[in-house]
Structure formats: C-alpha cells, structure tokens
C-alpha cells in the first residue's frame, strides 16, 4: 500500500492589487487520506493594515478571525469534515499601497486520529501593484520630408514602462 499524504493549497483570487484599495479572496483546499482529530490553517504574516473580512464556502472553520483583525489569521475545525475541505477567506487591503505585498508563514496543521500532528508549509503569496496604463504625454507632429532628408520624431509616455513607436508610410 502506498500512503497518500495530506495536501494544502491557498490560492488568491488576484495577484495584483489596485492602488485605490480593495479585497482579495483566498481559496483554501485541504485533503487528507485518513480521519483527523485536529485540522487548522495559520497565516502568520499579513501585510500591515490588511484586515480580515469574512469566511465562506462549504467547510467554514469553527475558529476564524474576527472582522477587522490584522497581522495573523488562524482557522480551526472542532468537528472535522470529510476530506477534501475547502473554504475561502477575504482580506481587505488599504488604498495607497506601494511595492509588492506578501502573505507568508502559511501552515496547514493536520493531526490524524491516534497520530501526531503534521504541518505542511504553503508557499508565500506575493501580490504586486497594478501597473498603470501608459498614455502619450506628447507625440510627434505631422512632418513632411523631401527626398532622403533625415528627420527625427519624439514622443514621451506618462509611465516608466518601456514604450515603442511604430511609423507607417
């Protein structure tokens, strides 16, 4: 017989945040091959000023953060549902964020009935800033050349992203 290991995934609804603030929903999926006497999820580090919103799904944990909680989020089941277990939690993030934001220290805790606790580390989740759209600040004016005379066209964009310009005859 081959033993099937426990698995844990936490997937965000988005990996890009809006500069105006908003919410991100995380989907949690836990599976295990044998009955468990304890089952939980811990999110040790949430970016500053990110707050817990709500929990949803079919297997809502008995223990969950309170609305507005910050810093770390813990979830646990008193009555262990059959595998697989899935639920969501929503986090609110503030306006004015800059740079990447990281949700880390995510651990799924399993304790098989009659066994010792086992922990699975889930990879950190990096949320990046939304890139603003480029706009042309000024563009080339209509130009006419005669023969093979050289000429130059100049344009500028409003962001630091790479811009290219194509001309047509």
Characterise this structure.
Strands 2, 4, 6, 8, 9 and 10 form a six-stranded mixed beta sheet that branches. A four-stranded antiparallel beta sheet has the order 1-3-7-5, with no helix packed on it. The chain is built from no helices and twelve strands. With 169 residues, the protein is an all-beta fold. The model has no long low-confidence stretch (mean pLDDT 86).
Key terms:
169 residues; 6-stranded mixed sheet; mainly beta
Write the layout of secondary structure elements.
Layout: E1 7-12, E2 16-17, E3 22-31, E4 36-45, E5 51-56, E6 73-77, E7 85-93, E8 101-112, E9 118-122, E10 125-129, E11 136-138, E12 156-157
- Strand content of the residues, in percent? 35-45%
Main sheet summary: 6 strands, mixed
What oligomeric arrangement do these chains adopt?
A: single chain
Q: How many strand units? A: 12
What value does the Rg take, in angstroms?
25 Å
Q: What is the number of helical segments per DSSP (H or I, 4+ residues)?
A: 0
In short:
The protein is an all-beta fold and 169 residues long.
């Amino acid at each position: 017989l081959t033993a099937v290991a426990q698995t844990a995934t936490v997937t965000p609804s988005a990996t890009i945040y809006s500069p105006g603030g908003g919410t991100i929903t995380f989907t949690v999926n836990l599976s295990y091959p044998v009955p468990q006497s304890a089952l939980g999820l811990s999110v040790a580090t949430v970016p500053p000023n990110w707050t817990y919103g709500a929990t949803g799904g079919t297997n809502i944990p008995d223990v969950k953060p309170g609305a507005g909680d910050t810093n770390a989020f813990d979830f646990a089941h008193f009555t262990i549902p059959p595998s697989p277990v899935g639920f969501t939690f929503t986090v609110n993030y503030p306006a004015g964020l800059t740079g990447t934001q990281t949700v880390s220290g995510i651990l799924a805790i399993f304790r098989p009935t009659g066994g010792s606790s086992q922990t699975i580390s889930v990879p950190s989740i990096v949320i990046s800033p939304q890139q603003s759209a480029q706009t042309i600040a000024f563009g080339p004016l209509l130009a006419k050349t005669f023969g093979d005379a050289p000429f130059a066209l100049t344009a500028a964009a409003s962001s630091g992203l790479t811009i290219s310009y194509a001309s047509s005859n």
